[in-house]
Every structure is written in structure tokens, then in C-alpha cells.
Write a structure and sequence with these properties.
Blueprint: H1 4-20, H2 45-57, E1 60-70, E2 85-95, E3 98-104, E4 114-118, E5 121-125, E6 142-143, H3 144-155, H4 157-167, E7 181-192, E8 195-204, H5 217-230, E9 235-245, E10 250-259, E11 264-272, H6 300-304
Antiparallel strand pairs: 1-2, 1-11, 2-3, 3-4, 4-5, 5-6, 7-8, 8-9, 9-10, 10-11
Helix pairs in contact: 1-3, 3-4, 3-5, 4-5
Length: 330
């Protein structure tokens, strides 16, 4: 029988995943003669690579997120723990050094839970209080790789492993790196916060996530362990749309991931305050605001002067994504 303390801990873990999940793009862990093959950037991949460089080069950004987690059937996991949930909120990412804080909104399935992540550790404030020094919880600053077992035990191995790949990303909620992106297609236009954007469907070679030179040993271990699990699970694929404004900044990412057991994860991340999002400190749930007078280039007044493109519908489909294989010896 599950104790009250254990149930609270597992709910806390699910809350963190709702906070930070930014799944990456690939169509399944299946063998392919073209898997993990690098090619020259195509016509539509170049603007995406440039936008990623410009956005991360600003060293900070804020984001609003909505994540919907629909669990599949998973033997041995209580249905009360893995109930469907919708989590929304806001956060801040610093990229040099990497630290991210996320806070769930009051109307989320897991309200008012804050979590802080850096390149090695996790801190949670609310629910399970992991890594925050609570006498009923673990020691301050739980390791990313150590945290993985709890996540996978709560969400199921496949969904939990996918979540850990995202948690270990050194670009935070963007979860993108030039080493990972293999192709892109322009799929229309739209608006984000009233700002005109161009939308691209992007394909990712997932094992190349390990090629990022900025990975810490803890991030590399966490991703390697997650890839090994995903190679054995029924992950079917993810469709991802990256939206870029006229100034060349990434303004939104939309991702839909599906599993053979019926599970799915949908994530919508809206990026703002690029370069002026404030400073996040490891273990501290309250970011320090940006200096007075900091003006982000994504401000509506600036963006409105550059483009007046109208919105069109963007299709989300896994059919154009790239099949990859997991190399456990990578």
C-alpha cells in the first residue's frame, strides 16, 4: 500500500516534469542506415540555426509554458499517480552559466510549485521539496542522474526518459543545439504575442544531443541513460514547430510526442524578455530582475516596426521527421 509520504513525493516529481518538459524531435528509436549521419544545412535549416545562435547569444530569456501529460498504460504504476494533467506557468533561463527556474500557475494541476535546475542538480519548492533541505526530503541539490530513477518510476520508463533528456539540455526550455538539427521545412506564418513569425518544422538527430561540447558530466550521464531506455521503449515520435520573428529570435516552440502505450506529451513554450530576463541562482527560487533600463529586442514596439505578416495555420505532423537510431556506445 502506498504511504502518504510516498504519494506526495511522486506527485512532486510529476509536478516538476510538467514544469520543465521540452521534448526533442525524432520519429522513434529504430535502426536506419541514415541514422546519425550529418549533412550540410538545407535552405530552411539555416535560418533556424541562425535564430538559435541569436537567441541563446542573448544569455537569458523568459518563457510561458503549457504542458499536457497524457499517461499511457504502464504496469505497476498507480493510476492515481499517473492521472492526466495540464501544467502551465512561467520561468527564466540563464545560459552562461546555465540555470533555469520554473513556477507553476495557481490554476495548474500542480499549483504554485517552483523548481530550479542547473547543469548538475535539481531543487524543488513545494510538493515533494526535493533537494531543498526539507527533513523529509533528500539532501540539498539532488543530482540530475539520481533524479532520473524517481522520474521514470513515476511517469513510466519511456515518458520519464524523454523528460530527463529535456532536463539535461544546456539550452533550457529551447532544448535545441546545432549538433542535433538535421533538417527543417518552412510551414507557414503566424503570430506570437501579436508579433509576426515564420514557422519551421524541424528534425532532430537525438543521439547527437551528446555531441554538445557544453554538456557537464552529469548532463552527459543523464542523457546517455535516457537514450538507452528510450531504445527499448515504444516511443513513436514527436512533431516540433519552431517560430522565428522578423528580428531572428525564436519566439515559440510547439511539440507533440506520442508513445505506443497510448501516452503523449504536448508542450507549448512562448519565449520573451530575451537578454533581459534576470539572473537565476542555483537553489534560489526567486530570480533577480534585470538591471533597470534593460530593453529586450523582442519588445512589441520593436517587433511591430519590423513586420505585419498575418497568421496562417501550422500543421503538426510526425511524417516529416527524421528516423534515428540510438548508439549506446556513443
Amino acid at each position: 500500500m502506498m504511504t502518504r509520504r510516498r504519494l506526495s513525493a511522486l506527485v512532486g516529481i510529476v509536478a516538476i516534469i510538467g514544469l520543465v518538459l521540452g521534448v526533442v524531435l525524432f520519429t522513434g528509436i529504430r535502426g536506419s542506415p541514415n541514422a546519425h549521419r550529418k549533412t550540410a544545412p538545407g535552405k530552411w535549416l539555416r535560418p533556424v540555426l541562425t535564430a538559435l545562435k541569436v537567441t541563446t547569444g542573448a544569455n537569458s530569456y523568459a518563457f510561458n509554458y503549457t504542458t499536457t501529460f497524457q499517461p499511457g498504460s504502464e504496469p505497476g504504476i498507480a493510476s492515481s499517480v499517473l492521472a492526466p494533467s495540464i501544467t502551465s506557468g512561467h520561468g527564466v533561463v540563464n545560459l552562461n552559466p546555465y540555470v533555469m527556474v520554473t513556477t507553476n500557475s495557481p490554476d495548474s494541476s500542480f499549483p504554485n510549485v517552483t523548481a530550479v535546475f542547473d547543469s548538475t542538480s535539481v531543487w524543488e519548492f513545494g510538493a515533494g521539496d526535493y533537494g531543498t533541505g526539507n527533513p523529509m526530503a533528500a539532501t540539498p541539490g539532488n543530482s540530475l542522474s539520481g533524479f532520473a530513477g524517481l522520474v521514470e518510476g513515476s511517469l513510466g520508463e519511456g515518458q520519464g526518459a524523454l523528460a530527463m533528456v529535456s532536463l539535461a539540455s544546456p539550452t533550457g526550455r529551447l532544448n535545441l543545439d546545432p549538433n542535433m538539427m538535421t533538417n527543417a521545412q518552412r510551414v507557414g506564418t503566424g503570430t506570437v504575442d501579436g508579433v509576426a513569425v515564420t514557422n519551421y518544422q524541424v528534425s532532430i538527430d537525438l543521439p547527437s544531443e551528446l555531441d554538445q561540447p557544453s554538456l557537464s558530466d552529469e548532463q552527459r550521464t543523464t542523457i546517455s541513460q535516457a537514450l538507452a531506455i528510450l531504445s527499448q521503449q515504444g516511443y513513436l515520435g514527436t512533431a516540433e514547430i519552431v517560430s522565428i520573428d522578423a528580428l531572428g529570435f525564436i519566439r515559440e516552440t510547439k511539440r507533440v510526442a506520442t508513445f505506443a502505450n497510448g501516452g503523449s506529451v504536448t508542450s507549448d513554450n512562448m519565449i520573451s524578455e530575451i537578454g533581459c530576463a534576470g539572473t537565476v541562482t542555483p537553489g534560489d527560487p526567486v530570480p533577480t530582475p534585470a538591471p533597470p533600463g534593460c530593453v529586450s529586442p523582442d519588445q512589441p514596439a520593436v517587433a511591430a516596426a519590423t513586420s505585419t505578416t498575418t497568421a496562417t495555420t501550422v500543421p503538426m505532423s510526425t511524417s516529416t521527421t527524421t528516423t534515428v537510431a540510438i548508439d549506446n556506445n556513443h
